Please model this.
Amino acid sequence: MIKPRTPPGVMELLPRDQIAFQRMLDTIRRIFEGFGFLPVETPVFELSEVLLTKSGGETERQVYFVQSTGALAKEGEGLPELALRFDLTVPLARYVAEHEHDLAFPFRRYQMQRVYRGERAQRGRFREFYQCDIDIIGKDALSPRYDAEIPAVVHAVFRALGLGAFTIQLNHRKLLRGFFEGLGIADARQMAVLRELDKLDKRGAEAVRATLQGEDFALSAEVVDRVLAFSQVRSQGHDDALAKLAALGEGGALFEQGRSELREALQRLRALGVPETDYAINLSIARGLDYYTGMVYETTLDAHPQIGSICSGGRYDDLAGHYTKSKLPGVGISIGLTRLFWQLREAGLIDTAESSVDVLVALMDDAGLDRALSISQRLRMAGLNVETQLEPRKLARQLQYADRAGIRFVVIRGEDEAARGAVAVKDLRRGEQFEVAEDELAETLKVEREQARTMR
Model:
């Protein structure tokens, strides 16, 4: 007999945890749609030649290929035809390039699907996980004004999720690259330096310093000191952010363009009503992927910095250039929801949810089955989620079942209640029982349910 076990690197939840996860998905979807984003889904696999275009970073070395058993039996050379998507951004680029003549630009899309990466098996790292992405794609050009709307969406999402205080951290690739230019760091080396800066939180300043001064980079101690000092710039409050940017001194055209666009984004965030306590500039943020060209974002929970970034993204000017001659610049963010949910649960920040079933209609004996079914159907038509016990059991066992399943209300119709045209309702959360007329049952339970929701 084969031992049942889940493969490593996946998150498989029991129903009440799955309900909590699903409610997070529902909240994120509601906020995305509230900002005018449209849903998109792409296939779980893409053509390998489409997926494995140069996107930078280490992601492409973690790709899963898809091979049928028939294809395995044949000998051949080269890569398999299909591969599982490792993120949602590359499939988006293919999607927009393929359908650009049928889309309205700027194209505002959200996508919430699983992706797959060959991560080394360890706690909190997943090979299959949900990403929740939004992107705004322009045709030929996309105003920097959209760069401020993206963090406003992020703010609305995490405020709605109720995870406590958080900070959306902002930086600009042009500001970084313009600063590197002023230090004499050549274009060919700038992306590599950016990737090293992106490892500051994981490796620490001294390890990054040693790498930048090592033989692979051979930067002088003075240049490395200035790079690390620049990366330590942080702000607290809107006016402080503007002051910190002003204190950077003058730079070249690229540097000044990055600073101007970052200032504009800060001003738009204020106009969008994002509290200044919830965003800050952080000049160490670089994002490891080469395709980012402008604004970059990372979001962290203030009380739980060990969790790391819970949402990241940025501006890219030509991601779809591999698939079309059209210039399709964009800006977007991604929430790795599976890893976030797992970390929040480990930190005790997410409680097991009550069941999505509002009511269990108990069955005392076979003679009452038709009446129980009728009551259940009337409750469903009133908008309640109802489970019906289809086989009679002792009441204590039915209450125990409901409690274990997380169902709050149990409707009981015994002989005494039937004689009075009433039912008894057991509230398992409060440990109380009350009686209500049968024709008032649906409205009573809906009121109780709404009161419970407002108290969450």
In short: The first strand starts at residue 38 and ends at 39. The domain at 359-454 is CATH 3.40.50.800 (Rossmann fold). DSSP finds 17 helices and 16 strands in the chain. The chain has a mean pLDDT of 90.
